[in-house]
Amino acid sequence: METTKKIASYDRVSELKAFDETKTGVKGLVEAGVSQIPRIFHHSSTNLANHKPLSSDLLHLTTIPTIDLGGRIFEDVITRKNAIKGIKEASEEWGFFQVINHGVSLQLLEKMKDGVRSFHEQAPEVRKQYYGRDFTRKFLYLSNFDLFSSPAANWRDTFSSYIAPDPPKPQDLPAICRDVMIEYSKEVMVLGKSLFELLSEALGLSPNHLNDMDCSKGLLMLSHYYPPCPEPDLTIGTSQHSDNSFLTVLLPDQIEGLQVHREGNWFDVPHVPGALIINIGDLLQLITNDKFVSLEHQVLANRATRARVSVACFFTTGVRPNPRMYGPIRELVSEENPPKYRETTIKDYATYFNAKGLDGTSALLHFKI
């Protein structure tokens, strides 16, 4: 009887609205001193990390590869070929790799993380003015883009900005992180173009192929803030999902929590000082006809005493108007390997992905032939 009463008294929609209307996100709950997380953040036990011991034949797969980009200026042909080989194998087997000597200064990486932390740790009254759910805005602060559609909320806040192809005006961005966002995003755009060249060659195509397809045209920057969680066994920082981009460049901090799902196992992504984490997105899996894989991943709730921050830069034009159709690349299909996906626009893909939310299933299934 007691249990029935408790369930009946839980009005999920009202609690979601009440949380959203605070306009201060998960950080606001922490500032209020909560010792128990609200029920809207409770995930089912099946969705919470299940660390099974790895079977002996998987022990050699315990970490994603780290690739040295040599400052993006390769000394000789062999060094470049080795980097391409490493990227090819990582993209086919993991869909994830870390890059070192990537050409972005370590000082800038630290400044970017400081900028994210500074924004999220401002007074609630200051943060509130940027909060909302109008995804057409140049700069948006919110908690959980899929708050009202996902099965459970994530213990995470985010600010986002579309950087390319239509960059925001400086006055559209908060002064506290404006300069570093502009500087860092420029560097990521340059790095992205280099990565798409290497990925093109890894596919056996000309270096310009993916850039000529406008894969590097759009950039969406999401700056995440994962406050310490008082009950980390009940929730997740970011639910299991794959990315709806061509490519993602992730700047992590030293607090670990990112996991990649492969062959039925969750693999922890280790902290590599100064590295950027690169992963293949759904759109690149689609146009490579499954040659490169967009693996699902998640972020565990933060057990540390300090907030974890990360910056995810997605190469996509997202829900912005873009008429270009994308399907499997002609050179990668044949009678023996016919197209596995129907053509779509990036906007249609992103719209479907966003409406579905992070529910643990891949949006790619919807576009399979």
From TrEMBL:
Keywords: Iron, Metal-binding, Oxidoreductase. The keyword Cell membrane does not apply. GO terms for molecular function: dioxygenase activity; metal ion binding. InterPro entries: DIOX_N, IPNS-like_FE2OG_OXY, IPNS-like_sf, Oxoglu/Fe-dep_dioxygenase_dom. The keyword Oxidoreductase applies. Its cofactor is Fe cation. It comes from the Eukaryota. Gene3D superfamilies: B-lactam Antibiotic, Isopenicillin N Synthase, Chain. Residues 217-318 form the Fe2OG dioxygenase domain. Belongs to the iron/ascorbate-dependent oxidoreductase family. This is Fe2OG dioxygenase domain-containing protein. It comes from Arabis alpina.
